DNA sequence: AGTTTGAGTTTACAGATGTAAACTTTAGTC
DNA sequence: GACTAAAGTTTACATCTGTAAACTCAAACT
């Protein structure tokens, strides 16, 4: 299971490549190019560039196999998702995050199990939750609320 | 209440400026520069650039007031947050989004009211939720799962 | 009225990102 | 062993971002 930390961020275009490799577990470039180009109108050269950047960033490992490489993920998909989501949330007013979750969840298809797990976690979280969260958009010492 | 749609995205640095204006409701550049530079080690010139870009993008409106402008948001904060979050989620495997929510919620401070509203929504959502969500990382016709 | 000063505008520039062609190398093929 | 074709590498280039200096212009002060 990949657990390596990565400092550099994975860009939107790179995510598309990573998702293929994450899903397949491993893949050669031919497979990646084949699958990605069915989802996006990108030339093979473009996808090669993305693969190259992901290797350089330490997101994909290579294993030589004859004349080509097998690529495998060096970072875990869930960890990458969590980091990306957390980064997005950090950007936003702490006070408004709850509503953002409500709206995001409303717009997202979730399985029964996912929903039950979420309810579970929320019920636990409720026992220690503060009554209110303050807006943190202004510098220390200023009071504000969105 | 600002409701304008915006096509261009607001960048990370621009978010910092928007949050000030959203929170204050309106502000002149002096105030924005003052507050933002208490949060980030940016020169006034940098913040001016960000303000200018936000005006050009249609995220901030200007009202002349003597020798300066009053800036007001043209887009709603919650809408911007929802769009940003949705964009991030769209990038991620549909099958894994539930777990991403679980982890994000675990890491986020939420108020009792927020949590209760989330539970409420989730309980409603549960009544129509599918048993499972499929991985959508591969092109049509391929089956995969992360 | 002339000068100062601060608000806003223009220009700058490096690095990241999306997009891709051109080139090099080498494993297979004949 | 020479050739070919595909894999990977280099180079390219426009746009976006982060970061900021320089410049312009008019409001406010003297």
TrEMBL record, chains A, B:
Presence of keyword Transcription: yes
A Pfam family it matches: Penicillinase_R
Protein origin, superkingdom: Bacteria
GO MF: DNA binding
Protein name per UniProt: Transcriptional regulator
Gene3D superfamilies hit by this protein: Winged helix-like DNA-binding domain superfamily/Winged helix DNA-binding domain
UniProt keyword annotations, A-Z: DNA-binding, Transcription, Transcription regulation
NCBIfam families per the UniProt record, alphabetical: CopY_TcrY
Presence of the UniProt keyword Transcription regulation in the record: yes
GO BP terms in the entry: negative regulation of DNA-templated transcription
Family as reported in the entry's similarity comment: Belongs to the BlaI transcriptional regulatory family.
